[in-house]
TrEMBL record:
Entry keywords, A to Z: Cytoplasm, DNA-binding, Phosphoprotein, Transcription, Transcription regulation, Two-component regulatory system
Main location (coarse class): cytoplasm
Protein name: Two component transcriptional regulator, winged helix family
Residue positions where 4-aspartylphosphate is found in the record: 52
Subcellular location as annotated: Cytoplasm
Domain of life: Bacteria
Organism this protein belongs to: Colwellia psychrerythraea (Vibrio psychroerythus)
Domain (Response regulatory) ranges: 3-116
GO cellular component: cytosol; protein-DNA complex
Entry GO MF terms: phosphorelay response regulator activity; transcription cis-regulatory region binding
Keyword Transcription: yes
Length: 230
């Protein structure tokens, strides 16, 4: 039975979500304050963490920042507003997905199953490493080195780099990247792929004004240029 940690200060909502997920064969632990969440996550390593953004004492963003480097499993945010800023911040600090309140139970369940399938798929398809010029990407250790210097990436940034580097010099469409990384079709509005590409460029010392390592091919997608890493 997979273990879900739900951190939600609305007692009634937390109880309803807990009952629904337990009825769907998950073990669910509930915390009503963010203060205890980081220690619990790192000690118990639940299979999925669901964080409300607005929490007493320690908010969801802060919890995610504290644990992300030591916790590689899925994190989903609950947000009370459909705010692009909240979504961008969440993705930048390593969230896997977000759910907008009011929570629709079957949508929440679908999102949980989606991130779990994606995690299982990633584990099943792990390879050794990619070496392109001065760039080394090690899938097993999830380490990236450029010119022998370690590059610190979030899990999403690593997955995006791995996807692009596995298909060098071939444009990868936003639809394809969105489906592979997020597990659902691109709706024309979600900016998560663009945010991750932008942050990845900065960390890999690409020219953000005129990128030459990860190139935007208008109308086709993003292209990982193999010759740029020599």
């Amino acid at each position: 039975m997979l273990h879900i940690l739900l951190v939600e200060d609305d007692v009634r909502l937390a109880s309803l979500i807990q009952q629904f997920l337990q009825a769907n064969n998950f073990k669910v632990t509930v915390l009503h304050s963010g203060e205890q969440a980081p220690a619990f996550i790192l000690a118990k390593q639940p299979d999925v963490v669901i964080l409300d953004i607005m929490l007493p004492k320690l908010d969801g963003f802060s919890i995610c920042r504290r644990v992300r480097k030591q916790f590689s499993k899925p994190i989903l945010f609950l947000t009370a507003k459909d705010s692009d800023l909240d979504h961008v911040i969440g993705l930048e600090i390593g969230a896997d997905d977000y759910i907008i309140k009011p929570v629709v139970p079957h949508v929440l369940l679908a999102r949980i199953n989606m991130v779990l399938r994606r995690t299982q798929k990633q584990k099943a398809t792990e390879q050794d490493n990619i070496q392109i010029g001065q760039l080394n990407i090690d899938k097993k250790s999830r380490q990236v080195h450029l010119n022998k210097e370690h590059i610190e990436l979030t899990s999403h940034e690593f997955e995006l780099l791995w996807l692009l580097a596995n298909n060098p010099d071939e444009p990868q469409s936003r639809d394809f990247i969105h489906q592979e990384m997020i597990g659902r079709d691109y709706d024309g509005f979600d900016r998560s792929v663009d945010v991750r590409v932008s942050r990845l460029r900065k960390k890999l010392a690409d020219d953000t004004e005129k990128p030459y390592k990860i190139i935007t091919i208008w109308g086709k997608g993003y292209l990982f240029c193999s010759s740029a890493w020599q």
